[in-house]
Design goal:
Blueprint (H helix, E strand, L loop, with lengths): L1 H22 L14 H20 L3 H6 L1 E8 L6 E2 H13 L4 E12 L5 E13 L5 E14 L5 E10 L2
Parallel strand pairs: 1-6
Antiparallel strand pairs: 1-2, 3-4, 4-5, 5-6
Length: about 170
Amino acid sequence: MFRHRSLSLMIASAFVACFVAACSQPQPAAPAASPDTRAADEAAIRANDTDWAKAAAAKDLDKCVSYYADDAIAIAPGQPAISGKDGLRKFIQGLLAVPNMQLTINISSVDVARSGDLAVDRGSVDTTVTDKKGKAKTSTSQYVLVWKKQADGSWKILADTSANTK
């Protein structure tokens, strides 16, 4: 009986010793939070919007298309969804072919996710076309762009959608 009690005490003591040793081990530190780059990312996206408008004014098709991700999708009023760079190239080429067209982009907001990999850019675009008689007609559309940060730190449009408002 004494032997049995002695063995039980020894096992219990070993268990307590292991428990204390395990609890006293330093816990791994939590990973450091990634730096908050949202302000810089927002500025980069706003600059991209401005640069895209300049490229469109210059009728620079390659530059306009370069802002889109390879697997981007665009949804324009009255048209089927356009996906991929080839489809976007054809769509933008048609847009740039409109004579005497001027685009004015009015950014309402750019919201960058805390994770720093996605952003939503909202606003309106005023499109003014001047006919051969010199009469200008302006239409306005609302847009939403979803931007995705690339491995090299640049931002590319992943989704582009718009709706005519007037």
